[in-house]
Each structure stands twice: as structure tokens, then as C-alpha cells.
Amino acid sequence: MQLSKFTDYAFRALIYLAKNSEENLTVDILAKNLEISSHHLKKVINKLAKTEYIISLKGRNGGLKLGLDPKEINLGKVLLLTEENLNIVECMSLSGTCPLVNEECKLKGIISKSLDEFVNEMSKYTLKDII
């Protein structure tokens, strides 16, 4: 399993904002310091700014800031917000993709349980834990 760049960039942006909370940061500054595409990061910031995780201030003294204390930003919730598709195998989202899949398919159940455990493990941590 591999998380999307979108989720990766969201975690990186939140970490950077938390570590540099005294500064007014722009998407361009973030992108440069994180060495990622400004274009892609704008999409990530836009999504996070629609939540309480990031505040986007307009104007001369504007910029990006964390909207919550790092101890209030749960990594599992960020993961679920930013990851559009956590289906590890095709049969988890599309029926009819495997002739062996039915209600008794044990593999699909094991994969689903493993994914739930991954999300639960991520949910045990906050942004504060990783900064």
C-alpha cells in the first residue's frame, strides 16, 4: 500500500506549519521549502483550508497558519480526509472484478481488517507527536 502524494503533501505542510508557527507562510514558500510542486500543494492547502486544520488569511499580513493546536490534529482524521481511495485491491470498491469474490471471501475481509488497523494506528497519534 502506498499513500497518495496528496496525503504525503498534506502531512508535510501540517508539519512545516506547526514547526514554523511564528511565520506567515504562503503556498509558494511552503512548496519551495518542502521541495514540492506549488501547483499540487495549492490543491492540498485548499482542501485543508476548508477544514479547521489550516487558516488562510488574506491581505498584506496574510498567509497560512495552523487552525488548531498540533495536539488537536489527529493523523488518522487527516489521512481519511486526504486519501480519496484506501481500497488496496480492486474488489474492495468494484463488484464483479474477481470471480472468486463473494460474501465468503476471506481475503477481502483480511485486507479490510488490516486497513482498519492501519487507520486505527494512525488515529492514535496527533501532529504534536510527530513534530
From TrEMBL:
Q: Which cofactor does it need?
A: [2Fe-2S] cluster
Please give the superkingdom of this protein's source: Bacteria
The record's annotation in Pfam families points to: Rrf2 (PF02082)
Q: Which Gene3D superfamilies match?
A: Winged helix-like DNA-binding domain superfamily/Winged helix DNA-binding domain
Q: Which residues form a coiled coil?
A: none
Q: Which UniProt keywords apply?
A: DNA-binding
Q: Which InterPro entries match?
A: Tscrpt_reg_Rrf2, WH-like_DNA-bd_sf, WH_DNA-bd_sf
Q: Which NCBIfam families match?
A: rrf2_super
User: Protein name, please?
Assistant: HTH-type transcriptional regulator NsrR
